[in-house]
Fold:
Amino acid sequence: MSGGLDDTICAIATAAGEGGIGIVRLSGPQSLDVASQVVRLRSGCPLSSMSSHTLHLADLVIPASNKLSDARPVPSRPSVSGLLDEALVVYMKAPRSFTAEDVVEIQSHGGMLVLELVCKICVESGSRMAEPGEFTKRAFLNGRLDLSQAEAVLDTIKATSYAGLNVAQRQLRGDLAREVDQARTSLLTVLAHVEAAIDFVDEDISFLQHDELLRIMREASAVVHKLEATAHDGRILREGAHVVILGRPNVGKSSLLNRLLREERAIVTAIPGTTRDVIEESIDLDGVTIRLVDTAGVRETDDIVEREGIKRTRLAQDEADLLLVVVDGSVPLTNDDRNLLIAVKDRKHVVVLNKSDLPDEANPDAALVGHSSCRISAITGSGIEMLKSILRVHLTSRGFETAENVTVTNVRHRDALRRANDSLGQALESVQCGMAGELISIDVRAAADALGEITGAITTDEILGRIFSEFCIGK
Ligand SMILES: Nc1nc2c(ncn2[C@@H]2O[C@H](COP(=O)(O)OP(=O)(O)OP(=O)(O)O)[C@@H](O)[C@H]2O)c(=O)[nH]1
Ligand SMILES: [Mg+2]
Structure:
């Protein structure tokens, strides 16, 4: 990103399009001066007289000197007074603002023309357009947020489920950073002692005992391991789970999809081979998004369309977090059922014995032994609540409960934790084998640095660039 923290930046902070209100945000040392060019307080007082964190009614005006030459699509220069809109304006004095800098937010009506004109005037008055994520990046560079919190801002904006929002909010409040920081501080203590022992090997100074070093390292290792282990649940809570419904033709896959969606989304008929394509729809299960995929029933067939459908079924199956293998419980299992049960053996799956409203014919079958299963009727709805509970248990290791635990949701964090874990494992082994301090210190430092990458204590322009480029302008 160009420009230092001395620049004053501006951007439209609300989403593009028409809205009830729209906000232009300014951040940096010149925010008040720049805003004064376009804002006239109704009270008649200068902008600099506003107390921090108070809202003021104002007019937005085109300054007399401004030509608005290439503004898009400006009507012929506004007549009479050059009025653009009325607005509410708030000044947030540094450091009590999102960026920890002087911030002015101008809330006008949410038309793009007004907002773009306000930005243009702000740029002509000494600020520059903000780059993607630059407000949040400044919050990080100014020490208002650590890197994991800055990432949680983006997760909060992008959350589409309550569970995703909940984990993002916990991260934004610094829960992850606290645990990671604690482990890192312990490792830095270990490092200081190991390095001192190397430097002062001949002097009579007492350093941390071997056992104490091991204890601290094991404790840090347990925290890192625990956090890393939450990453699988974290991804599901943040992005939702991919659940694929499989089964031979006519067992009731589409009926199950419709029952879970509570709508007649997929065509259901008594003709085997009804579904020819994959159908994907989402449901909200206790705040977690479940992407349900109904597939074409798998069987040998010469029909070209059906064969393509079966190919797509196999692709969907590969990407699933959980497979629901539907069999028709009202008839004995067929070879197609048995082959499918063998094929999913090593995948996370649940067997759904459908058509429980009819007499049970499949259940004593040996092929079902060892599979977790559940009896339902897609037609009457019986057993569906039980199936939902089973989904919760199978999709995450701790159910959908996130309230009490820090959960890692970010791939970058998971990778850093993995590296920290590996390095710590090496370091522990070296200590136990009585290896030289130099060797131990390399691995302990690597682990501490990997943890530092999560919070941004250790960072590079490349990491920052990658993170903040995912943001939109105005964030
Ligand atoms: N009695 C009863 N019939 C059911 C039940 N579920 C589905 N059926 C019937 O089974 C037939 C097939 O249902 P579908 O949902 O189309 O089955 P499918 O597995 O999607 O079939 P394909 O798309 O051909 O692979 C239809 O006649 C449904 O009404 C159930 O729980 N009980
Ligand atoms: Mg179907």
Q: What stands out?
A: The chain has a mean pLDDT of 89. The chain has 15 helices and 14 strands. The first helix runs from residue 31 to 36.
